Amino acid sequence: MEKSRKKFIDVIDKAIVVGNTMDRDELLFSYKGILYPVALCSLEVFRAMESFEARSDDVILAGYPKSGTNWVGQILSDLVATFEKKRLDEEKSVNHEELEEFPYLEIGDTEKYERMKKLTSRRVILTHLAPGNLPKSIFKNKAKILLLIRNPKDVATSFFHFSNAWSALPSYETWDDFFVAFMTEKKNEKTSPEDLLFSYDGILYPAAFSSPETLEALKSFETRSSDVILAGYPKTGTNWLEQMVREIESTDAKYTEEEMKERINAEKELQMFPRLEFGDPGVFERMKKLPSRRIILTHLSPHLLPPSVLQGKAKILLLVRNPKDTAVSYYHFYNNMPVLPSFASWDEYFTAFMNGKLAWGSYFDHLMEWNRHIDHERMMMISYEELKENPVLGMKKIAAFFGFSLSEEEFSRIARKTSFQAMKEKSKETHGKFGDILFRKGVVGSWRDLFSEVQNEEMDQKFEECIGGTILATKIKYDIYCKT
Questions:
Q1: What does the pLDDT look like over 242-298, one tens digit per residue?
Q2: Number of independent structural domains in the chain
Q3: In this structure, are 311 and 411 located in the same domain?
Q4: Of 151, 185, 203, which marks where a domain is finished?
Q5: Prior bond to 263 cis, omega within 30?
Q6: Residue 355 forms part of a structural domain
Q7: How far is C-alpha 448 from the chain's CA centre?
């Protein structure tokens, strides 16, 4: 093990030397919206790692930094060496001396993964990477993965001392400074949009939430006739609508407290995500285990939905909102959400919105495509504005569409519970640190604060060209909500 330990120390010492020559803002680089130490890896290494082939007998240890991976990695290496009877004496490594590699998968040079092919089985591989950034072969080739976790308070404390003691990482003047950084995912100013977004079928999506592999796997997803599907472009009120529908559905079903707890725990245990297109490729297999009725949200346009959505018997509720308020809400969301690229000005953002160069693509293309399915027998449309004007009436329409039966008192109770103010007050409890980002104002007409006269005219013309004269246009009531 002496040579293996020397390899480890050599890499760390080299990183210290490199770190000492760099300014604080040069120490980290961004890949898919996550920061990594420049002294240890690079974008080229991550790209080379995509071709890494795992073996079914690989032993993979995963864990967040400072959760004890070096300690448990040593234990695993000794266990494997003993089991395989490849250790000649207590000082030898499980791997042949001449072929030793730094144990962390993401640390090294671009040729590392070719050299790793020569390592004898079983290979012990460590990583701090999240599943979305691991090579696909790790899951495809059935390698076994041991996930190491540690309580967050001790992890934070250990990481604080580690960051301040190691020159390859930015240091912090105080614990308070570090704590803020640990608790908030601040964007690196150097992060490029290419790191934060990926393109699939010509449309951009957040790399932190999804992947091309997930969208490919989605094609085979099978809906159930009892599924409740909610669709809408980002920032049209889908989080608000979801809460409304969940309250209506659970009230109609009359779940016991124990049943509600079981349903909530099932979603947590199966690692469900708030949108159909979010998560890893395996999420759709896990969704099969969810009890009916499943409430499923999506921002996707129809052509990217699995065939079972429109061809099956599940009912679809489409939420629409006037484009000017949608654009303003999405602008603030973009600039406050760490996993999305920000814009230097409203004018810069407005151009991107009008050209469809945002996550989930063009608002206008989204509506035009849904308009082709508006007469679908199992589809209903409702607008954000009508829900704001009369939430009880809107909820009654929703309940009737899905076949839910509630009393007047129950509708009134849900209206109070799901009012924007009530949801904003509970947003930290329900949505964590994203609460303030998701629930900002919730008003109709705030577009007047940002739109210039020229932008007003451009939006009016675009809406008329794309949506004018359609059933969707009538529902949106553009002349009422979007004219000065």
A1: 999 999 999 999 988 888 888 888 877 776 777 899 988 988 998 998 988 999 999
A2: 2
A3: yes
A4: 151
A5: no
A6: yes
A7: 31
